[in-house]
Amino acid sequence: LSLVGSEMCIRDRNSTYRIGIKNESTGKLTYVEGTGVMTHTFKISDKGKYAPYVENKGSQTIHVTGHVEYQ
């Protein structure tokens, strides 16, 4: 069983943020930056332990949902 993807969604129209994944084994950070409603799927090809990454660039609270896919 291996992790093949992670999807996150933010629905706050007035916030600027970064969402992504971090390979905790290598420290490599993969992210997208956006404002407003955004969904992005991150494909994972490198082995390692991953964690979700969210950075709120604004002053408002943001709400994040997501899921992971294993194969």
What does this entry look like structurally?
Helices cover 0% and strands 61% of the residues. The chain is mostly beta strands and 71 residues long. The strands form two sheets. It has a three-stranded antiparallel beta sheet, with no helix packed on it. A three-stranded antiparallel beta sheet has the order 3-2-5, with no helix packed on it. β2 (16-23) and β3 form a beta hairpin. The chain starts with a strand and ends with a strand.
Global Rg: 12 Å
Number of helices, where a helix is a run of at least 4 consecutive DSSP H or I residues: 0
Strand content range:
over 45%
What share of residues is helical?
under 10%
Biggest sheet record: 3 strands, antiparallel
| Number of extended strands | 6
Shape: globular
The secondary-structure element order is EEEEEE
Mean pLDDT: 77
Adjacency order of strands in the biggest sheet: 4-1-6
In short:
The chain has 71 residues and is mostly beta strands. It has strands at 3-10, 16-23, 29-35, 38-43, 50-56, 64-70. The mean pLDDT is 77.
Break the fold down into its secondary structure elements and pairings.
Elements: E1 3-10, E2 16-23, E3 29-35, E4 38-43, E5 50-56, E6 64-70
Antiparallel strand pairs: 1-4, 1-6, 2-3, 2-5
